[in-house]
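Record pair follows.
FIRST:
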Amino acid sequence: MGSTRGGGVTWNVYKKSSFVRLSNVSLAYTIPAAIVQKWKIGSLKFYFNVVNAAVFSKWNYFDPEYHGSDNNSNITPTPVTYNFGLNLTL
């Protein structure tokens, strides 16, 4: 589909953009009470979280949800965030 804008011709390209996004993954493990009592602590829990873990798409190096300007030459990927830690009660 072509159109004139300011004397030039611009083209809008539409491509099928089906995708699957794995946006939030959380894992946690609580050490059983029988074990932590031997260590003389109340409870111990480990956790791990990933935000924006993955995008599965036919588009290479492109986020299908990106809504940028007409000049897409400076597209940066969506950042992936990792969180990990532990909860300890005495």
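SECOND:
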Amino acid sequence: MRRIITFYFLLNFCASFAQDIHFSQYLQSPLTMNPSMAGASKDIQVIVNYKDQWRSVASPYKTYAVSADGKYSRKGWEKGFLGYGINVFRDVAGDANMGTTQANISAAYHVYTSAKSTLGAGLQAGFGQKSIDFSKLQWGNQYDGSKYDPNLPTGEPVGSSSFIYPDFGAGVVWNYGTSQRTISSNDGIKASIGASIYHVNKPRTSFYSAANDKLYQRITVHGMSEIGIKNTNVSLIPSFLYNRQGPSQEIIPGCAARYMLKEDSKYTGFVKGAAVSLGGFYRFKDAFVVTSMLEIANYAFGISYDVNTSSLKEASSGRGGFEICLKYVNPSPFAYRSKPSF
């Protein structure tokens, strides 16, 4: 039975291998969402992501990612500022360690469209590597009628176990923000909306040189806002993500509530601000996602869990997978500012 399930997952993975990775905590993976997010809101931002899914069914899919981005501006730059970023991820699945490694650099320029908003455009360039260990695969021709014999020929064509390809993307984003009148008034608003395209050059993704399979372009549209409920410690953070890649699409709307536990000390700096968030998201026809995040000063720790709702739930018992992220930002999100954070 396990061989049947593993083979089923192998077929699924081969069919979806031309699809990109995705994180349920998509707001915590900005450079895989839109290159123009580089430097869009923080002077410095470093994020580490890890995702583990389908462990309850077969060999799990594991995704590791790290990204860093920031902004560059100097005196006299009144019209805008530069954004820069780098992101690397590694995705591995199945007994054959079928995987993707990707490294990208991003550059963006953000123009002040008003005292409360910016409009940015960004480009991303990098390379990807796809790999597989064919020696760990079992094929139907290697069964002699009673047992598996690894010495029997597979009857399958031999392809390259690894190859590298160039990859390019672009995007635009609009950001809006109002400042709070006081530290405790909680009357500020933040919002952003953007669109991007990845794999502009449609790189080849086949392990077999004779094949001409190409990576589908991915179109992404995303948006979010953070709305403070005046004179309370609560803010609402609704957001959405839409991905379209070839015949596949992903739609994830949701909302989180953020509660301020304590504020930064304005004068001594000894007391650090802290907040906790809890939210729910729905990935259409796939999973319900529960998320939470703890923020302390410049640091944040987020965790989420996918509850499978698709037809695969009979095999997975509803267990999709979990995801964690660690984040460092500067300046602190708890520091009072008389102007928007961009």
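COMMENT: Residues 1-17 have pLDDT under 50 and may be disordered.
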